[in-house]
């Protein structure tokens, strides 16, 4: 359904209602963090409309008719779920390895992953792929995407452009258009050559896997003096004065 970006919420809700009324429709609202007034979205009660909500927390105010509790995945299930993504990222990163010495170093690194259980290897493997990114611009793009990605793991291109230009790390660009082209080119390289971003949508926004986003936040917090937590995590203790003096970013 085409949405007129100039319309306010009420007009959009009316437009949606006119499209779905008198139709059999199934609506999925993913990753809901708080109660939503469905009528305000154009989803009025009707027998032919079924709505599925997914949430990390129980949203009791929604008065749902039926709830399905999904248990936390075991370590084995987590590793099985993310294994394919990690393998692809590593394989893409090794495409440029042309000497036996590079492969030996990589093999030694991979063997060390097994010392950390099942969850840690996924993080270490993705961090290893990050370290193989060719040049500071690709690394900074990867980290910035992780820092500014929201709950849906979408990086709005307009935000990415503002931060990248404001931080001044794009080389050989003099105009906004040149900066835009440079960012898209870098993002495509990270997607195709390293598989550390998912894709670029038609409007330029970039999608990133949750695990990859959290790895980027972890690297930023550890190596780049950024106060960055995994999405939804609570900052329980404010950093000490010395840490704040070294801090360069608080997303």
UniProtKB/TrEMBL annotation:
GO molecular function: ADP binding
Keyword Membrane: yes
Keywords of this entry: Membrane, Plant defense, Transmembrane, Transmembrane helix
Transmembrane segments: 141-161
UniProt keyword annotation of Transmembrane present: yes
Any Pfam family: NB-ARC
SUPFAM superfamilies hit by this protein: P-loop containing nucleoside triphosphate hydrolases (SSF52540)
Taxonomy, superkingdom: Eukaryota
Domain NB-ARC: 4-87
Entries under PANTHER family matching the protein: NB-ARC DOMAIN-CONTAINING PROTEIN-RELATED (PTHR33463), RPP4C3 (PTHR33463:SF198)
Protein name as catalogued: PREDICTED: disease resistance
């Amino acid at each position: 359904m085409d949405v007129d970006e100039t319309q306010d919420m009420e007009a959009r809700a009316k437009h949606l209602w006119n499209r779905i009324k008198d139709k059999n429709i199934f609506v999925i609202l993913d990753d809901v963090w708080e109660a939503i007034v469905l009528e305000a979205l154009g989803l009025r009660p009707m027998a032919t409309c079924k709505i599925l909500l997914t949430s990390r927390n129980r949203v009791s105010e929604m008065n749902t008719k039926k709830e399905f509790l999904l248990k936390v995945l075991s370590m084995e299930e987590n590793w099985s779920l993310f294994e394919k993504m990690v393998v692809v990222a590593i394989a893409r990163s090794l495409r440029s390895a042309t000497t036996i010495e590079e492969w030996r170093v990589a093999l030694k690194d991979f063997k060390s992953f097994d010392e950390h259980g099942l969850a840690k290897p996924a993080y270490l493997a993705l961090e290893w792929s990050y370290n193989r990114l060719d040049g500071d611009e690709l690394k900074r793009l990867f980290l910035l995407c992780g820092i500014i990605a929201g709950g849906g793991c979408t990086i709005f291109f307009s935000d990415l452009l503002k931060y990248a230009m404001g931080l001044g790390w794009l080389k050989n660009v003099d105009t906004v258009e040149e900066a835009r082209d440079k960012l898209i080119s870098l993002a495509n390289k990270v997607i195709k050559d390293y598989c550390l971003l998912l894709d670029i949508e038609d409007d330029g926004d970039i999608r990133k896997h949750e695990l990859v986003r959290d790895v980027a936040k972890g690297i930023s917090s550890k190596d780049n003096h950024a106060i960055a937590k995994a999405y939804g995590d609570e900052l329980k203790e404010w950093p000490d004065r010395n840490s704040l003096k070294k801090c360069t970013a608080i997303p």
